[in-house]
Amino acid sequence: MYTLSECQSIVNEHINKMQLPVLPENLYDPMRYILNLEAKRIRPALVLMGCNLFSDDIEQAVFPALAIEVFHNFTLMHDDIMDHSERRRNNLTVHVKWNTNVAILSGDAMLIKAYELLNRVHRDALPEILPVFNQTALQVCEGQQYDMDYENRTEVTIEEYLKMITYKTAVLLAASLKMGALLGGSNEEDSNLLYEYGKNLGIAFQLQDDLLDVFADPDLFGKVTGNDIVTNKKTILLIEALRASSGAQREKLLHWLSLTNFDKDEKVKAVSSIYTELDIPNTVRERIDQYHRLAIGSLERLSKESVRKEALLSFAGYLLNRKK
Amino acid sequence: MYTLSECQSIVNEHINKMQLPVLPENLYDPMRYILNLEAKRIRPALVLMGCNLFSDDIEQAVFPALAIEVFHNFTLMHDDIMDHSERRRNNLTVHVKWNTNVAILSGDAMLIKAYELLNRVHRDALPEILPVFNQTALQVCEGQQYDMDYENRTEVTIEEYLKMITYKTAVLLAASLKMGALLGGSNEEDSNLLYEYGKNLGIAFQLQDDLLDVFADPDLFGKVTGNDIVTNKKTILLIEALRASSGAQREKLLHWLSLTNFDKDEKVKAVSSIYTELDIPNTVRERIDQYHRLAIGSLERLSKESVRKEALLSFAGYLLNRKK
């Protein structure tokens, strides 16, 4: 059985070996650039781990794993344009380092490249995994669209928010595992259990991301704690706080949300105090635990001996015990 | 045997029936919008005609035909952003009617949707046509990149220009025919002959487009004649003229290219006069004929009785005898 870090190494090795054309430079250089930024390779590693649960031959899952990583990086390249992000993993984003046109077209070519990599699986496996990939890719776009739509709305329900993060983040983790499982020879039921495991873990992960943005140690987290508060981002914390607050407390929260000129530190301090008063961190932690339990439950119901599930069990721990 | 216009009707019927999700609106409305603009449906019709050359059952090629049309419209949506085009087929472009983010993301989803449609062929056919589609889609991106790169260069050779239009325009026509042929049961050799037919016809078509921009009747052409001259676009006419001119004539041409303030009509008149003096229209017409002959030659070598080739023969005439 391969561990997470072994799978990550295998993925990195293959990404380093990946041959991309040289010309036109403005199409392929940005691909090489974004793929070579330091990254955890979680999603492609999950393809290999999903496969390994059912088969000792994980080589067959390498190209689909690379497809998932190339697809993921395509979404990052285009999301960075849409979100006007200037930095990604401590480096300039592609649309800043080159320009927007380059980032659009190079991203498009990456999406096609992802399909080309997917197409390198055994021809019998293709009709099984391509629909999973297609559906997931569309959902990721839908999730990004909902995310942008919500920016312009005053109120977003918890259900809407959960759907958005499910599509934008969780389904790709889920599909990575499912595709790996199908390649490894899993039956439909087991591959769906693995999908549920990945999906619920992905939701828990995103909720924790929201929590850590405000309540993590800034030295560990690497970005300024509270950035979501500064930008009025509709995180689970804000949505829960808007739901739970009333009276003067709610007035105070709405007041901070409405200000256009403010001291950032002061706003972060004031809003996070309201969150604490409302016990939001615990409310969110309970939600995280709930999705974590759902994930583990799915893993337990899988028809494989416990020893084969160990890597995925410890992956859940790794993902959710981070402090940054 | 189906004629071009019958194939176009079949395509239109299926596009009208195509079910796209409703939500999120900003993702799917732009898809519906661009797909419902009046269009000739040449490429998807070629998929059906390519299939029909080898099989009477063209139903099997309908989904790949739709995939090609959706892919083509994805490229239009993104190209319009990159080229800052405000109108497309007498309507607002998506990034103008909505915004750039919507056009980026909706275009991405269209590319995925194209693969989803492609995936609906018989599962045995998928491994044959997917690589053709992938390679072509990447070449289309490369062609667009070269086109943008050439905008910033002072000199472009004829070979570079021909490669650019081959990738940007011709290979999609070629691949449409080849994919149709493979679905209809063609052997490798015939499908490649059909690819060559489509590719050379596509090159001839693009060269004619350049010619008609300057020398077409403006009432028929629908756009202001000479727009390429106004914008210094590196068309076959300009490249040939830069190659053929010398002395005072070349000075005059370079002078007009260097002006930033000028009367548009005056510039079009002056540059097109130089083209005429240099006999560029005939030089270009000869090139068009050359590629036309290559196309017909490939069609003739195809191992099918002449009667089955009639629709494609008349298609070549239709495409190249247009006056606008």
Mean pLDDT of chain A: 95
Helical residue percent band of chain A: over 70%
* Alpha carbon gap, first and last residue of chain A: 28 Å
Looking at the structure, what is the overall shape of chain A? globular
Structural class of chain A: mainly alpha
Tally of contiguous helical segments of chain A: 16
Q: What's the main sheet of chain A like?
A: 2 strands, antiparallel
Beta strand % of chain A: under 5%
Q: Give the largest chain-chain interface (CB within 8 Å).
A: A-B, 35 and 35 residues
CATH structural fold name of the domain at 187-324 in chain A: Farnesyl Diphosphate Synthase
CATH architecture of the domain at 187-324 in chain A: Orthogonal Bundle
Q: How many β-strand runs of chain A?
A: 2
Notes on the structure:
The structure is a homodimer of 324-residue chains. The first copy, chain A, is built from 16 helices and two strands. Chain A is mainly alpha-helical. Chain A has a domain at 187-324: Farnesyl Diphosphate Synthase. At the A-B interface, helix 4, helix 6 and helix 7 of A face helix 4, helix 6 and helix 7 of B.
